[in-house]
Each structure stands twice: as C-alpha cells, then as structure tokens.
Amino acid sequence: MRFSPGGANPDVLISECGPRDGLQILAQIMPTDAKKRWLVALHAAGLREIEVCSFVPAKLMPQMADAADVVAFARTLPGLTVLALVPNLRGAEAAIAAGAHKLTIPVSGSEEHSLANVRKTRAEMVAEVRRIVEYRNVSAPHVAVEANVSVAFGCTIAGPVPEDEVVRLCAELVEAGVDDSGLSDTTGMANPGQVRRLFGRVIREIGDRTGAAHMHNTRGLGLANNLAAYDAGVRIFDSSLGGLGGCPHAPGASGNVVTEDLVFMFEAMGVRTGIDLEKLVAARRPMRDGLPGVDVHGMIAEAGLPKGFNAATGRASP
Description:
Strand order of the largest sheet: 1-8-7-6
Mean pLDDT: 93
CATH superfamily: Aldolase class I
Radius of gyration: 18 Å
CATH topology: TIM Barrel
Order of helices and strands: EHHEHEHEHHEHEHEHEHHHHEE
CATH architecture: Alpha-Beta Barrel
CATH class: Alpha Beta
Low-confidence stretches: none
Structural class: alpha/beta
Oligomer: single chain
Number of domains: 1
Largest sheet: 4 strands, parallel
C-alpha cells in the first residue's frame, strides 16, 4: 500500500527485510523460535512493516520452510504490516491463506536475471503479476500487492539495464494492477546520480504508485543512494538489520543497507522514522543469538550514537 506521510505518522517508512532477504542467502537456518524473538525486538524498536518470509518450496529454500508459522506469529504484533515475498500465484495463494497483509513480487529488469531467478521472462512475470492481482481482487481485496523491479540499476549477468526498459516495466506493473512499484539495486551497482535520475523518471511515469527504494551496500554507496532516492521523492525504504542479505543469483552482491545506519541518517537529518535507535541496535542480540557466527555490519552499532543525540527523538538534547 502506498505510504502517505502526514499528521503524527513518520516522514518515511522503513521496511525491514532482514527476516526474508537477510536469511534467504544464508546456508545457516535460523530456528523458528529465534525468528519470533527477533520479530518481537524489531517491533519493539518501532518498525511497523517487516518482510517476514517468502513463500517458496522448502526444498529450494529451507530457510523459509516455516513461512506460514512466522506469518501467523507476526500477525499478533499490534500495528505491524506483515509482508511476504511471493514469486508466483501459488506462493501468493499460500501467503494470503497464511494471513499476510501485503505481498511483494520481484520482477527482474533484465531477461537474464529473470530467467535465473524465477525461470520466467519479464513478459511472463508481468502476466504472473496480473494473475496474482486478479486472485487478490477476488479472494482478499484487503491485501496490498507491490511489484519491485530487481536489478534496476545494473545486472551482474547482463551488465547495464536500459533505463527506458525499467520505466516501461514499472508502468506495465501498475497497469497490471499492483498498488505500487519500486526499484531494487539487487546487485549493488547503483550510484546516487543514477538513482536520482531513474527514480525521478519513474515518479514522472507512475506518480504516487512509486514504491520503495531497495538498495544494497556492496560498493559502499547504499546510504548515499537512499539519500538520492529521498531527494527524488521516495518515501519508502527497504533495509536489513546488521546489513544481512543479498541475492543468490548475483554473485558478490551481498549486503543490504544497514537498517540502524539508515535510521540514524534520517533521524539526524530531522526526518522522522518512528524508530527508537537504541532499541533497534538492541534487536541485533536476538538476531545474532539465532545466527551464531554470522557476520553482521553497521557503523552505528560499532561507534554508538553521538553525544547529546536523543535516540527516541533523533535529535540532539538541549
């Protein structure tokens, strides 16, 4: 569902994708009870949209075998939008049956990545999105559907992805009936000028149907790219606690933008996220307890908050 800041709401929506994007690339499997403790901590920090899982065959992605159980638990957390990734209609049916509030569908900007990721062409994925929307409209009209363009800023398989094709794909997805369509730097190839330009074009094409910026920090430009997206008018941002995650079909492209660092950047600027930074950093403990030995990233967790910085308000105390 499109995010409309105003009133007492935050200025931006931070959508935590760690429990899905952060876990799917790991060989290590986080136990279900550990996932639940992690979700509780993320919710306590103020996150109000969390991508909790993906509905894919367990034999292909055993990390997500407990998807229905995780969704059922996440629904008990008050005020939380429970987001699930679905690659096809079968996944959408399962996610809706489990009670997900929102579905996200990845549609690749390059044919090569699309075939590697979902074994469908881009045109076939747009048709699949249309079937999912039609099913949603009939069976669960209250469930939101987003479709974001993966590898929108470059592909490790195909190389550069033409911007005209990305803009056209966003328009086709909106025409297919999704609530919004955002852009993902799946391979960590974007730069701020490119992000500002391409999101500007997408916003001119589909307006307030423009969805999230999903950036990776593979080459150290994740925060800069998110700021460029914000300057272009984007108000929804995906990130992962501790920078967990990546794309299984994009070698060397691991590393989502760190939620803690992203929240600090916005709060230090006076852009309200609704998230308590101290509680957010504390949420790293249940994550690490559930994933012993896994590398995590982030500057704020290491350096701490600046002197006089109020973690609850995001501003320096008088």
